[in-house]
Amino acid sequence: MSPQGEIPLAANILGTIGTVFWCVQLIPQIVRNYRTKSTEGLPAAMMFLWSASGVPFGAYAIAQQFNIPLIVQPQCFCALCGVSWAQCMVYGQKWRAWTATLVLLSLFAVFAGIQVGLVYAIRPAYARGVEWPVLLIGIMAFLLLIGGYFPIPFELLKRRGRVVGIDFIFLGIDWCGAFFSLMSLVAQTEFDTLFGTLYALCCVIEMAMVVSHLIWRLRTRGIRKRAKEQGESFDESSEGRQWQAQGWDLEAMIKRIFGKGKDLETEGEKE
Fold first, then answer.
1. Are 258 and 147 in a shared domain?
2. Residue 239 in contact with residue 226, Cβ under 8 Å?
3. 10: closest CA among 185, 194, 175?
4. Per-residue pLDDT averaged across 102-117, rounded?
5. For the chain, what is the domain count?
6. Buried-exposed string 100-136: b where 16+ CB fall within 10 A, e elsewhere
7. Same domain, 15 and 121
8. Are residues 41 and 122 part of one domain?
9. Percent helix / strand / coil, the chain, rounded to 5
10. CA dihedral angle for residue 230, residue 232, residue 234, residue 236, rounded to 10 degrees
């Protein structure tokens, strides 16, 4: 692993396309959240982890001397994910708008300070040929970004494969951003395996989400047709609600298990 040297024109063009997509990817999601005043089905943890991943992501890109678009990309990504996280706090956790705004701006200031500190901390060592600090930061970015997807399987199991609260235009734009960024790395003189894997996994996970929802639509086409004939939506029909209620809410199950354990401990202390 070494910093990029001369950046080919193709890498810059592909990187620019990927950055344009990732600079606007979350705008449809943010608009959807604002219009519906709801973030149900959109995990706040995912948005927070994605925003935080922009810190090591940006530091790594600068240290590796990626093409300029790929250096700008994590900054835009961090900002948009942060705004979406603040919406989750306002609409989901019922925070006041000014409280969420103040916390978000404070987070951005902290993130900026950490990223600048990381860049100045790792550059001298990297110039001397010490590679592990840069690799460690890259791994941190990788884990934070991929970790943001962790709540998604829980949401899909809970809703029997249905994608709720996540805008499909956002998913499409995000997929394109990851794909063109991956192609930009391919076009560089030296392929970055860590971030190439990251972009590829983003593409695969988001395609899996779309496929999951399409399968849900196929499985429920009869229910949705009958509900439409009765002038109801899927969620309004009793048959639809009954079918949807059969999902596995693993998060609730885990909470109940740990809740029972705490109750037993409390009863034991009282005795």
1. no
2. yes
3. 185
4. 96
5. 2
6. beeebeebbeebeeebeebbeebbeebeeeeeebbee
7. yes
8. yes
9. 75, 0, 25
10. -120
Question: What does the angle CA 52 – CA 62 – CA 74 come to, to the nearest 5 degrees?
Answer: 35
Q: Which two tokens stand for residue 69?
A: 């678009």
Q: What are the tokens at 175?
A: 């997929």
2, part of any domain: no
Residue 247 is predicted with a pLDDT of: 86
CA atoms within 13 A on the CB side of 223: 17
Q: Which two tokens stand for residue 209?
A: 């989400």
pTM across the whole model: 0.82
Q: What is the pLDDT of residue 259?
A: 67
pLDDT digits (tens, 9 = 90+) for 237-247: 999 999 988 88
**pLDDT, tens only, 252-268:** 777 777 765 555 455 55
For residue 17, is pLDDT > 80? yes
CB contact set of 254 (below 8 Å; sequence gap of 6+): none
Return the closest-CA partner of residue 136 out of 125, 147, 149, 128.
Answer: 125
Q: In this structure, are 143 and 155 located in the same domain?
A: yes
Amino acid at 50: W
Provide the token pair at 193.
Answer: 């395996």
